[in-house]
């Protein structure tokens, strides 16, 4: 991996750069708020999770209370005795549990972008709170004091060849999906269903005016999102993804803040990778006649299975590629102590 590096003495750090000093207390505040949020929902009988299109039992809110309580225990122990290995493991376990609770945040964002309402405001709030907890818990688990005030600043770097091949696979995986969607958007027929039928299904399922307008113009909203996803994927592996574009004259020479591409990349990877992988597994079981693929809005189960294979394969391959690219970007753009960097070169 080629990169240009330079050594500089870090200036006086702002409160954000001193995050290892305060992130533990911030995580404790989040843990108390999250456990309280779950407890209020349980006692009021408000469901926090949706299983498919149906509301899950409100008793599942006790899981939210448990996650918040475990986080409180871990943060309190870290405050008293420091970040010991067992506590670090506990923090990562709670981080994974919070990530499971945050599943669905990407879908909430997509529906809001296209003017549709979320299925449940309380469930969406749970997704947001849980996602915030993931960031805080992960930061707490990695909150170690930096031993040196001299850092190596990495310049724009190209990801390794295997990472770029993963990005190619993630891009190619969306081509059949995009072709299928565009056939419907242009009024054609695929998997036994016409574009007019698909438009009527979208309207019946409560699609927003923006979504329907795009379809009437021959554009599919999910294809536009796929194009943005591919742009994000290549921005993570190519040097231009680390600097602002040349046409942004007022930002020329400025580095892209790490959080700007990492935030959507982490949300996308955490959502699409497991969704796609489990979906491919289910499609494989349906192909082997172990389970029955529900027909849904299609005319036959075989048509639904064909569309399921195309969609789930795209999400699985892209989700894994996005995970690989995100990890690469994270490692390539972080600040490293100069002595450590010199010893690894």
Automatic annotation (TrEMBL):
Keyword Membrane annotated: yes
Keyword annotations: Membrane, Transmembrane, Transmembrane helix
Highest taxon of the lineage: Bacteria
Residues annotated as transmembrane: 21-47, 59-78, 90-114, 120-139, 182-201, 221-241, 262-285, 305-330
Stated name of the protein: Uncharacterized protein
Source organism of the structure: Streptomyces albidochromogenes
Keyword rRNA processing assigned: no
């Amino acid at each position: 991996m080629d990169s240009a590096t330079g050594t500089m003495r870090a200036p006086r750090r702002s409160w954000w750069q001193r995050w290892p000093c305060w992130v533990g207390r911030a995580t404790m505040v989040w843990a108390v708020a999250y456990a309280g949020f779950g407890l209020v929902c349980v006692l009021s009988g408000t469901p926090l999770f949706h299983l498919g299109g149906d509301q899950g039992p409100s008793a599942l809110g006790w899981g939210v209370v448990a996650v918040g309580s475990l986080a409180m225990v871990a943060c309190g122990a870290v405050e008293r005795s420091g970040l010991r290995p067992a506590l670090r493991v506990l923090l990562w376990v709670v981080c994974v549990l919070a990530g499971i609770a945050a599943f669905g945040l990407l879908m909430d964002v997509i529906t809001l972008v296209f003017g549709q309402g979320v299925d449940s405001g309380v469930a969406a709030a749970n997704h947001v709170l849980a996602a915030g907890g993931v960031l805080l818990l992960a930061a707490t688990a990695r909150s170690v004091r930096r031993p040196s005030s001299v850092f190596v600043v990495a310049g724009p770097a190209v990801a390794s060849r295997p990472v770029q091949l993963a990005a190619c696979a993630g891009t190619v995986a969306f081509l059949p999906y995009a072709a299928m969607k565009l056939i419907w958007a242009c009024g054609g027929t695929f998997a036994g269903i016409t574009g007019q039928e698909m438009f009527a299904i979208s309207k019946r399922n409560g699609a927003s005016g923006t979504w329907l307008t795009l379809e009437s113009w021959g554009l599919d909203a999910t294809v536009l999102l796929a194009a943005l996803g591919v742009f994000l994927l290549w921005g993570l592996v190519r040097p231009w993804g680390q600097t602002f574009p040349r046409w942004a004259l007022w930002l020329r020479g400025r580095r892209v803040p790490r959080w700007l591409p990492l935030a959507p990349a982490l949300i996308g990877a955490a959502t699409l990778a497991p969704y796609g992988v489990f979906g491919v597994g289910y499609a494989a079981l349906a192909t082997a006649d172990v389970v029955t693929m529900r027909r849904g809005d299609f005319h036959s189960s075989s048509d639904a299975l064909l569309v399921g294979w195309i969609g789930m394969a795209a999400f699985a391959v892209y989700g894994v590629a996005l995970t690989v690219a995100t990890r690469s970007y994270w490692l390539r753009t972080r600040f490293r102590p100069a002595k450590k960097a010199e010893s690894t070169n």
